[in-house]
Amino acid sequence: MISKATAEHYHWGEQCDGWHLLKRSDMSIIHERMPPLTKEVRHYHCQSRQFFLVLSGELTMELEGELHTLSAHQGIEIPPQAKHQAQNLSQHAVEFVVISHPTTRGDRIDIA
């Protein structure tokens, strides 16, 4: 069994947290937390397909220039090659799960 309490923890971006729930080359599942008013670097993945599922709070996902606002229990698929950026534009933390197939490790191209 794995949970946020027992998973490998790491920090990323602007004071954001991640917990590796499943860390394999063919699939990755990460529980992430973004504090208010934070965002990741806009990027894309050459091979990886992702699915973001919001657990609590509100996540704004910019996907190919279009903004999508997701609340708890809503998700969005990010296909390979799609430029995207997860953002927390709210005044409250957002927590979500990111499923990636295959893993995004070594498959991320940041966009300036």
Automatic annotation (TrEMBL):
Q: Which UniProt keywords apply?
A: Metal-binding
- Residue ranges constituting the Cupin type-2 domain according to the UniProt record: 32-99
Coiled-coil spans are none
Concerning Pfam families, the annotation shows: Cupin_2
Protein name listed in UniProt: Cupin domain-containing protein
Q: Which organism does this record belong to?
A: Franconibacter daqui
Could you read off the lineage of the organism from its UniProt record? Bacteria, Pseudomonadati, Pseudomonadota, Gammaproteobacteria, Enterobacterales
